Recover the amino acids of this structure.
């Protein structure tokens, strides 16, 4: 089984002064239990992040390794070719890999300001061409995802890059993350409500 080290999550707010110059704002403090941090902005787009406490019992033996969510975030940006993108990231206190097929994340999304989610994104360990690794997509069945998007793994963070047009949003997108083991929810961020309100 492969494990990754634990890295801290630090969010920095960059404030743009009225004179057009930029100054480094105060370091973003960890939010209260499952709460939504204030919107952060950088040169690439808007970042909305939700922090979550370390509240899941550590793994004792594979494959029963629940993943504890540290933070979940959504960032919007535009590529050099003009394509509008959304980057959904899940940070874990420890991101297990290797043969731990039972672990996956489900990200319910509300794109129309409705009473509940209207679409979702999955991040799950799956069999790739020559390895076992993480994949993200819109549909999840039999431990695998389809309608896949590009995913990036860095330390204990997974980021799924989704074209904005694929979600057909009509309102500001709200989001949350569920950490699952064998499709049973073991952690959620935020603990109540939504991020991106």
């Amino acid at each position: 089984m492969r494990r990754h080290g634990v890295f801290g999550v630090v969010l920095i707010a960059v404030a743009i002064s009225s004179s057009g110059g930029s100054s480094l704002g105060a370091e973003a403090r960890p939010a209260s239990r499952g709460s939504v941090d204030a919107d952060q902005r950088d040169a690439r787009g808007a970042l909305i992040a939700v922090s979550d406490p370390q509240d899941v019992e550590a793994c004792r033996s594979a494959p029963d390794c629940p993943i504890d969510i540290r933070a979940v975030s959504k960032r919007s940006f535009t590529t050099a070719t003009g394509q509008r993108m959304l980057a959904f990231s899940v940070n874990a206190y420890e991101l297990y890999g290797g043969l731990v097929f039972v672990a996956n994340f489900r990200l319910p999304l509300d794109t129309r300001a409705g009473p509940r989610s209207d679409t979702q994104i999955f991040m799950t360990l799956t069999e790739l061409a020559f390895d076992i690794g993480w994949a993200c997509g819109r549909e999840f069945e039999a431990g695998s995802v389809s309608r896949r998007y590009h995913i990036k793994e860095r330390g204990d963070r997974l980021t799924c890059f989704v074209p904005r047009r694929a979600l057909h949003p009509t309102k500001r997108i709200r989001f949350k993350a569920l950490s699952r083991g064998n499709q049973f929810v073991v952690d959620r961020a935020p603990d109540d409500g939504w991020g991106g309100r």
User: Anything to note?
Assistant: The chain has one domain: 12-189. Confidence is low (pLDDT under 50) at residues 1-44. The two ends are 38 Å apart (CA to CA).
